[in-house]
């Protein structure tokens, strides 16, 4: 049950929201479980329990191919819709003004109805001047890193092994577009990941680690596009 449909990158998503002035976030109720699977897939989704063999009739969480399958369905659902982007079940709608936003939202809800999805209205956010989305605060002026995420990075102690270096660099890289000097800043830390290089946290590594956190902690902002 392998599936290769790619997930969109944050940059791809934010580009679709460029020019928006207000934002709506749609929450799907039990998103994956709203997707029925065919008979062939059901055979692969049989599990052994104390009550005997049970078979999923709907797409369960935890299946490796589930995100790609669900993303493909959502991409098909929103295809051609203006001011609309989605990362899995996290769907955002926008518009250059309220009238356009509402028209885009109505078009999306028609598609949702056509595809037979249900949304959790009480958890949706409608016509908001700003939203937290994919680790960014988005508004009419663009996007900036979520301060809570930056605070987590800022408070991180220095890595003590390669796994922690990779984890730190992964978080740093996610916000790399906000840091023009990213390659130079992370160079000493990247050197620790080279093959057959023993882990040694040098003064140069500590300086790079601290400077990267300091730079990321500065107020920063960029456009959606």
TrEMBL record:
Domain Reverse transcriptase: 1-138
Short name of one Pfam family: RVT_1
CDD domains: RT_LTR
Protein name: Reverse transcriptase domain-containing protein
């Amino acid at each position: 049950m392998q599936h290769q449909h790619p997930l969109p990158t944050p940059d791809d998503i934010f580009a679709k929201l460029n020019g928006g002035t207000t934002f709506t976030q749609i929450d799907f109720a039990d998103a994956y479980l709203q997707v029925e699977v065919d008979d062939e897939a059901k055979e692969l989704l049989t599990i052994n329990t104390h009550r005997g063999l049970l078979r999923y009739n709907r797409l369960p969480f935890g299946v490796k191919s589930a995100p790609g399958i669900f993303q493909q369905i959502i991409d098909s659902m929103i295809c051609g819709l203006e001011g609309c982007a989605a990362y899995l079940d996290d769907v955002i709608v926008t518009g250059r003004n309220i009238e356009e936003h509402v028209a885009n939202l109505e078009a999306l809800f028609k598609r949702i109805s056509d595809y037979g999805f249900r949304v959790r209205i009480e958890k949706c956010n409608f016509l908001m001047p700003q939203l937290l989305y994919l680790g960014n605060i988005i508004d009419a002026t663009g996007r900036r890193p979520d301060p809570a995420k930056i605070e987590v990075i800022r408070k991180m102690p220095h890595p003590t092994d390669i796994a922690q270096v990779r984890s730190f660099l992964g978080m740093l890289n996610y916000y790399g577009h906000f840091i023009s000097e990213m390659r130079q800043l992370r160079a000493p830390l990247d050197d620790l990941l080279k093959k057959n290089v023993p882990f040694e946290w040098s003064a140069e590594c500590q300086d790079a680690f601290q400077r990267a956190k300091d730079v990321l902690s500065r107020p920063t902002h960029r456009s959606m596009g």
